[in-house]
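Long-time lurker. I teach an intro course on protein structure, and each term I like to show students one example going from raw sequence to a predicted 3D structure in token notation. This year I'd like something fresh instead of my usual example. Would anyone be willing to generate the tokens for the chain below so I can use it in lecture? Attribution to the forum is fine with me.
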Amino acid sequence: MLERLLGFDLVQQRTPAGLPARDLRAPGLRLRCEDARGTARATGLERPRARRSARARGRRPEAALQPGFWVKDGEYFALALDTDGRQVDALTSNNGHLLWSGIVDKSKAQALADHLVGPRLFSGWGVRTLAEGEGRYNPIGYHVGTVWPFDNSFVAWGLRRYGFKEEAAKVAAGILDAAAFFDGRLPEAFGGYERSATKYPVQYPTACSPQAWSTGAPLLLLRTMLGLEPEGEHLVIDPALPTTIGRLELLDIPGRWGRIDAFGRGRIDIDGHAGVQRRRKTTPRRRTR
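-- Reply from a regular --
Happy to contribute to a lecture. Here you go:
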């Protein structure tokens, strides 16, 4: 996302003396790669000689994220720091990437969740790359206001990872609703216009469709809505589905637990007309073969 933003403070509309030297995403991405090794171990896909994770080495994950990124008055993480350590203080969907990585201190997670599903970032169809109201916001600009399905799948899982099940379901529902307007084939990106203003997701003129990133997004959204998480020899299943989904089944999930079926029913009213309805936990059914 920095490709179109280098050299600009998007809130104050000034050009810093130095280009951004430290990208917000880098520490989280490194940590997430280490976490992926843990998932690989749980599913039997671990590669030989995999490195130990930061947690195994006794380091706190959030310690890898420099405090200079935190925008105190806005309660979110800046996009980058320039060579002088000054913040590029735009509010972006990258905050959701940090939740996905697990690098955020829990004391800051609620503020990030509020931003991600708040009106500046969430269009009703999904989370915008750049928040409405920022200096270079453009709802049809590739990095500066459009909605990227793969980006939103990361955001949704990040919210779910920190316990924000209803917020995650809201993001998932928006993206899946948008998919219906694209005949089930999610494009690379689409416009960040407010849902109530357009009634349909506005096409991005040069978006790739099909596109590999977007093709993978529904798979992570499935995991998010069903709450699938490997834990040692077991697979935790804790569904949190929007009411628009109805019923969801994912059968024969393989791993060290053998094969398990996951089921969930839509119990979260994302529109809020009847309030958020809490779900009953679903007990997984184990298959033996």
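Some talking points for your students: Helices lie at 25-43, 94-101, 106-116, 149-161, 165-181, 195-198, 212-226. Residues 10 and 34 are 32 Å apart (CA to CA).
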